[in-house]
Amino acid sequence: MNHSKFIAKMVGCFRDGFGDLNSSFWLGNEKLHVISAQRDHQLKIDIWFNNTNDDSAYLHYNLFRISSEASKYEITLGSYTGSFEYDYMDYHRDMKFSTFDQDNDLAGQNCAHTAFHPGGWWFNACHAIMLNGIYGAPWDTGICLFQRNTLDKNCSVVAVDMKIKPL
Ligand SMILES: [Ca+2]
């Protein structure tokens, strides 16, 4: 797995997609927009860890939609069910997609700055879950889950995958 592929990608790369299906892959925000605009889709995020008793977990949303490029690929999510009591994507609901060359987040700085959280994401100010970080890296540059109420961090993610399916 080579998550460095996600680092310092400009907004156009995340728009058009990159990588390959066997390692690191981003379908592309434009395709996500077109697909999710045609009919309603659900989202499932699978996560694998290396230091917990339960070595995998999932988050499921009964609606997933990505807006157009003009509205910065804003994410819409339905209700959450999943392995965690804490809904990690809740903090990212209705956020626009930011990259290091396009700051669309709610923070004073650019959350997707290459020296900070170096990958594109639906940042708020900045995140509770960030799946496009550097594999094996610590906070802040890693692939981490961050419970914003308890400040509990888990950066032991070894693999993730985000899948959508028509409802
Ligand atoms: Ca900002």
UniProtKB/TrEMBL annotation:
The lineage of its organism: Eukaryota, Metazoa, Echinodermata, Eleutherozoa, Echinozoa. Residues 1-167 form the Fibrinogen C-terminal domain. GO terms for cellular component: extracellular space. This is Tenascin. Transmembrane segments: none annotated. It comes from the Eukaryota. Gene3D superfamilies: Gamma Fibrinogen, chain A, domain 1. InterPro entries: Fibrinogen-like_C, Fibrinogen_a/b/g_C_1, Fibrinogen_a/b/g_C_dom, Fibrinogen_C-term_domain. Coiled coil: none annotated.
